[in-house]
């Protein structure tokens, strides 16, 4: 690995660890980063189903079912039968689930404010442009 590549890898790893460490601090009743992602998906996509989560996250419906069981048991998500299609179950975030997401958004806003305080407006514009370019090209 070239020197700049190693530096970037190390810096990116440290940045990633900062974010993951915060997510793990929110570990309430066994809620993991995967659980958090599901709660956020359900909160943002009203009327979502387990099948849609499986498709969005590219995981099996069985894996989603296992995650949902934990989230429902711990009152982060509720599951209700669809009124028009009795085979379909609609997911919604509970108040407790919404609180987990709000806490994370508070963290993201804090990091955003700190970043804006460190970078000049031109640097911030360039940084944002680079992140947008990366996000538009990376498909996991």
Largest sheet: 2 strands, antiparallel
Tell me, rounded to a whole number, the average pLDDT.
Answer: 87
Beginning-to-end CA distance, first to last residue:
22 Å
Strand content: 5-15%
Number of helices: 6
Strand order of the largest sheet: 1-2
* Percentage of residues in helical conformation: 55-70%
Unreliable spans are: none
According to DSSP, the number of beta strands is 2
Radius of gyration: 18 Å
Alpha-beta content class: mainly alpha
Q: Helices and strands, in N-to-C order? A: HHHHEEHH
Report the principal-axis shape. Answer: elongated
Brief account:
With 140 residues, the chain is mostly helical. Helices cover 69% and strands 7% of the residues.
How is this structure best described in words?
It is built from six helices and two strands, in the order H-H-H-H-E-E-H-H. The protein is mainly α. Helix 2 packs across helix 4, helix 2 packs across helix 5 and helix 3 crosses helix 4.
Question: How do the helices and strands line up, and which of them pair or pack?
Answer:
Elements: H1 3-25, H2 33-44, H3 50-57, H4 61-73, E1 77-81, E2 89-93, H5 95-118, H6 121-137
